[in-house]
């Protein structure tokens, strides 16, 4: 895990609030909070690789295992009350378990050999498995009855997260994570699961991609990825994480001609839902829920067979920095052949979904601050990005011209910036960059491109007017 502790500037001191210890039918509840201190309108990326694990409550120790049945994470105030998104929004959080290599329990991510950090520069061996994540959709980790995620008392956990402050003042809050677990004989009797993470842009801490949004009404943009089963296994649970504009995620066994083994459907809030009333509008609101499948029997996949994930977005409007990630769990099962796997119809159930809109609503993201002044024609189509400004604020280009942004900022997460389309003819975005790295984009379509930095959406805005040649 030491190799992961590379981005020191965002290190959060683990000053934990006391745990609320609850025992119910032999199920123990563990809970801890991580403080977050967010500047006005900040989009805060944090990490912590010394998370306390349920063993800190002392119900199991050393090389004993507990089995986690359920887990959730949310953002709360000092009194433990969940915070409204109008104040702070937990955009996403990912939990990692590194096991304990020094004590003979190395863990590896099931789908990635390496992971790239949000700086798009630092790539480290994936010596930890991503086991739970949630975001605006409020996903809860749970399993069909009879299964447990077995963790050892000396396992080491970490988390990567992003919090958005929608208010013009500094805010302090806590990310609270809670796990329900059993120990001893009860844990031993459960079937163990391994977490898996699929992603149409995998192995990155910031696995974004962009939907250009130049299609007709009703058209769809899809992206797929394939994972070969590392062993004979049964998929028992899975759920997608998507952003605004998403229509569907679909998992299927490509070698079995499954039309669909499991779906994850996003549901968006009603027009008066808090996600649409948040001001300022810093990003396109994501769904309020995505469906989660459960299969008590498991969806059988033989070693080497292909599991395909497809992420579908609306293609009519641009959707920038979207994600198509999917996290689930499987149980190893050494008694599967390719033929027997495909002969078995997947049996899945879904969680109940809240009422809402199943077709993503159209939503334009306006710039927080419109740049002013004359449109500048640049002799050399290059701009230098410095913290935290994008200048000149208004630029005019001819269609077909390429503009380059040089990110001349020092090392460190605080100095990362990007270029993201808020509103305009074609959706595109750059990775988070610094240290002299650059990004260029060729503006083919005439029109007005309203751009911002997704990490500094209030301070850093720019408009490009592209005229016909
Ligand atoms: Cu920025």
Provide an overview of this structure.
The protein is mainly beta. It has 3 helices and 35 strands. Helices cover 3% and strands 45% of the residues. Strands 1, 2, 4, 11, 12, 14 and 15 form a 7-stranded mixed β-sheet that branches. A hairpin with an 8-residue loop joins strand 20 and strand 21 (262-264). The chain is globular and about 75 Å long. Mean pLDDT is 91; it is low at 1-21. The structure holds copper (II) ion. Copper (II) ion is lined by residues 388, 417, 453, 455-456, 460.
Nutshell version of this structure?
The chain is mainly beta. The chain has helices spanning 184-189, 274-277, 338-343; strands at 22-24, 27-38, 43-51, 65-76, 88-97, 99-100, 105-106, 114-116, 123-125, 129-135, 141-142, 147-152, 157-165, 171-183, 191-192, 194-199, 209-211, 220-228, 233-242, 246-253, 262-264, 266-267, 289-290, 292-301, 306-314, 319-322, 324-332, 349-350, 382-385, 394-398, 402-407, 420-423, 437-442, 447-452, 461-467. Strands 1, 2, 4, 11, 12, 14 and 15 form a 7-stranded mixed sheet that branches.
């Amino acid at each position: 895990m030491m190799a992961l502790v590379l981005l020191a500037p965002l290190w959060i001191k683990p000053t934990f609030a006391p745990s609320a210890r609850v025992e119910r039918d032999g199920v123990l509840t563990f809970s801890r909070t991580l403080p977050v201190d967010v500047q006005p309108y900040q989009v805060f990326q944090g990490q912590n690789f010394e998370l306390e694990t349920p063993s800190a409550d002392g119900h199991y120790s050393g090389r004993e295992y507990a089995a986690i049945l359920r887990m959730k994470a949310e953002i709360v105030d000092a009194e433990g009350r969940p915070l409204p998104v109008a104040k702070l929004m937990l955009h996403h959080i990912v939990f990692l378990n590194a096991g304990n290599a020094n004590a003979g329990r190395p863990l590896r991510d099931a789908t990635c050999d390496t992971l790239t950090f949000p700086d798009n520069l630092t790539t480290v061996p994936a010596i930890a498995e991503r086991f739970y994540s949630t975001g605006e959709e409020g996903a809860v980790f749970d399993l069909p009855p009879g299964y447990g995620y077995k963790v050892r008392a000396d396992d080491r956990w970490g988390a990567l997260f992003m919090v958005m402050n929608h208010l013009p003042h500094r805010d302090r809050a806590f990310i609270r994570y809670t796990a329900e677990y059993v120990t001893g004989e009860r844990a031993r009797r459960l079937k163990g699961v391994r977490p898996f993470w699929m992603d149409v842009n995998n192995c990155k801490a910031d696995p974004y991609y962009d939907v250009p949004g130049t299609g007709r009404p009703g058209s769809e943009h899809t992206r797929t990825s394939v994972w070969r089963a590392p062993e004979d296994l049964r998929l028992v649970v899975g759920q997608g994480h998507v952003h605004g504009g998403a229509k569907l995620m679909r998992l299927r066994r490509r070698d079995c001609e499954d039309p669909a083994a499991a779906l994850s459907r996003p549901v968006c809030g009603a027009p008066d839902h808090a996600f649409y009333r948040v001001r300022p509008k810093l990003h396109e609101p994501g769904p309020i829920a995505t469906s989660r499948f459960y299969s008590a029997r498991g969806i059988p996949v033989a070693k080497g067979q292909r599991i395909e994930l497809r992420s579908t977005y609306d293609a009519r409007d641009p959707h920038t920095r979207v994600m198509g990630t999917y996290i689930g769990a499987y149980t190893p099962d050494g008694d599967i052949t390719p033929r027997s796997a495909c002969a078995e119809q997947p049996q899945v159930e879904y969680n109940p979904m809240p009422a809402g809109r199943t077709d993503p609503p159209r939503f334009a993201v306006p710039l927080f601050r419109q740049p002013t002044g004359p449109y500048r024609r640049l002799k050399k189509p290059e701009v230098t990005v410095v913290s935290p400004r994008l200048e000149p604020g208004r630029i005019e280009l001819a269609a077909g011209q390429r503009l380059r942004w040089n990110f001349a900022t020092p090392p460190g997460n605080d100095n990362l910036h990007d270029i993201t389309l808020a509103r305009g003819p074609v959706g595109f975005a750059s990775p988070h960059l610094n240290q002299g790295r650059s990004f260029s984009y060729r503006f083919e379509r005439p029109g007005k491109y309203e751009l911002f930095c997704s990490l500094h959406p209030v301070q850093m805005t720019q408009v490009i007017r592209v005229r016909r040649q």
